[in-house]
């Protein structure tokens, strides 16, 4: 770990009120670096679809702007691991302006995004607009023990107001409840034992918070507990943020038995008439980069729409969805999503069934459910966990993972996998350097057994390098 990275991490932890001795705060970076060209097709102005929040009467754009993966200046290699690339504030301003011009009014950020810089950059961009033109959502991201005292958590909330340059927060979330190795204990420590939930309720009564909710990842017992608190009148949740997409609707638990199907999460909110805010409609981009056979199926069905637009239409079709968040790093992403929701063309029953078929086939590809969110980073031993998973998934999805030595394309596939692996991940940062410490696993929103998966990929790559005999490798099944 070089000096630059050490200083960068220290600066980030200091911004969250955390000492450098702890690794408890997930390094939520998500700043992108690649250059992308803008889409030539211009979305219409004045056609955005809106949903009404019955709690406050807010008229919210169905497309919400996620400020977790902001555009950066240049293409710095270090940005992938720790978010050191400079955020392109001019481009952030430009895209926010364009979004507001086309009807987007919901902007979602956190004190932890982009190494603590997202709120600041979001505040600069939005302060150039009238306050009534936008709703701002942010989170109490008190993951680290050093930020979980009453005083530290209150300071985090007050700092959000300063960074965002506002006097009130429209949508305030308890950030990612249900995570950690002992989810119940962590929930109580972060929000109950320190009296912070009661503090937030008081801030709502004062008008400093207009809507109070939570985002959920992890242990279903915590999700159910939070809703039981709502039922008992201990707190009124004005909205809840959940992961919903056409793969997770019925297959989240099938892919990873530690997760919960979105069908259940959404259904529980509908029972209580709680508006749902949707995250991960694309599963970290995986539903925009489907395996070629599945992507072709969608494009043949509607050549005029992008593969990603199907996922956004799916999430938006559910009537109790208030807004669908998208981390629109590049202008082309923003334009494509605006085209999808300006206005929304809801999916028909037959189209929903069509996507369920796509989801069922996608499960058979045996990919790792990594969203490339980088919550697991930085690894104390320098392993680039998301890059490893992204490469492995890409090869499986494109049917480029060698699996059968009798295949005439085996040698070509083997070379493509290994060369691509070395290009995507430096040798010293590959899966074989994982010692299984497990520090990453509690921070994973998808609850992936990270050390176990890294060991599996390491063994697979080593098998390919040595060209051991055998007709079939179990870790790279041929897609159906």
How does this structure look, described?
By secondary structure, the protein is α/β, with parallel strands linked by helices. Helix content is 41%, strand content 11%. It has 17 helices and 10 strands. The strands form 2 sheets. It has an 8-stranded parallel beta barrel with strand order 3-4-5-6-7-8-9-10, surrounded by 6 helices. Strands 1-2 form a two-stranded antiparallel ribbon. Helix 12 packs across helix 13.
Percent of residues in helices comes to: 40-55%
As a percent range, the share of strand residues is 5-15%
String of helices and strands: HEEEHHEHEHEHHEHEHHEHHEHHHHH
Gap from first CA to last CA: 42 Å
DSSP strand tally: 10
Tally of contiguous helical segments: 17
Mean pLDDT: 86
Structural class estimated from helices and strands: alpha/beta
Provide the gyration radius in Å: 22 Å
Biggest β-sheet description: 8 strands, parallel, barrel
Low-confidence stretches: 1-30, 32-39, 75-82
């Amino acid at each position: 770990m070089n000096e630059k990275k050490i200083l960068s991490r220290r600066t980030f932890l200091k911004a969250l009120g955390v000492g450098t001795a702890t690794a408890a705060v997930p390094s939520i970076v998500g700043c992108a670096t690649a250059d992308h060209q803008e889409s030539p097709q211009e979305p219409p102005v004045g056609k955005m679809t809106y949903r009404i929040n019955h709690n406050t009467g807010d008229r919210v754009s169905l497309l919400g702007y996620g400020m977790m993966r902001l555009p950066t200046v240049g293409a710095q290699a270090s940005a992938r691991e720790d978010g050191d690339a400079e955020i392109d504030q001019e481009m952030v301003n430009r895209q926010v302006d364009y979004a507001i011009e086309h009807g987007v009014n919901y902007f979602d950020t956190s004190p932890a995004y982009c190494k603590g810089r997202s709120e600041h950059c979001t505040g600069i961009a939005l302060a150039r607009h009238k306050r009534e033109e936008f709703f701002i959502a942010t989170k109490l991201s008190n993951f680290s023990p050093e930020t979980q005292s009453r005083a530290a958590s209150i300071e985090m909330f007050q700092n959000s107001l300063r960074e965002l340059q506002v006097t009130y927060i429209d949508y305030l979330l308890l950030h990612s409840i249900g995570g950690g190795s002992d989810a119940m204990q962590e929930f109580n420590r972060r929000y109950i034992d320190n009296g912070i939930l009661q503090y937030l309720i008081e801030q709502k009564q004062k008008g400093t918070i207009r809507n109070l909710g939570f985002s959920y990842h992890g242990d279903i017992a915590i999700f159910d507990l939070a809703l039981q608190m709502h039922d008992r009148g201990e707190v009124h949740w004005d909205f809840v943020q959940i992961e919903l997409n056409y793969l997770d609707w019925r297959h989240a638990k099938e892919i990873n038995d530690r997760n919960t199907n979105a069908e259940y999460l959404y259904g529980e909110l509908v029972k209580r008439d709680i508006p749902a805010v949707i995250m991960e409609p694309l599963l970290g981009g995986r539903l925009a980069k489907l395996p070629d056979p599945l992507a072709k199926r969608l494009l043949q069905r509607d050549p005029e729409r992008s593969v990603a637009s199907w996922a956004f239409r799916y999430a938006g079709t559910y009537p109790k969805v208030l807004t669908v968040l998208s981390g629109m790093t590049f202008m082309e992403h923003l334009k494509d999503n605006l085209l999808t929701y300006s206005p929304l063309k809801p999916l028909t029953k037959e189209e929903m069934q069509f996507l369920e078929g796509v989801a069922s086939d996608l499960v058979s590809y045996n990919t790792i459910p990594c969203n490339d969110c980088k919550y697991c980073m930085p690894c104390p031993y320098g392993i680039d966990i998301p890059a490893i998973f992204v490469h492995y998934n890409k090869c499986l999805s494109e049917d480029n993972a060698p699996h059968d030595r009798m295949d005439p394309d085996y040698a070509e596939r083997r070379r493509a996998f290994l060369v691509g692996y070395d290009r995507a991940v430096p040798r010293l940062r590959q899966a074989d350097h994982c010692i299984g410490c497990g520090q990453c696993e509690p921070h994973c929103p998808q609850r992936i057994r990270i050390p176990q998966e890294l060991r599996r990929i390491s063994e697979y790559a080593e098998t390919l390098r040595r060209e051991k005999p055998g007709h079939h490798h179990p870790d790279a099944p041929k897609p159906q």
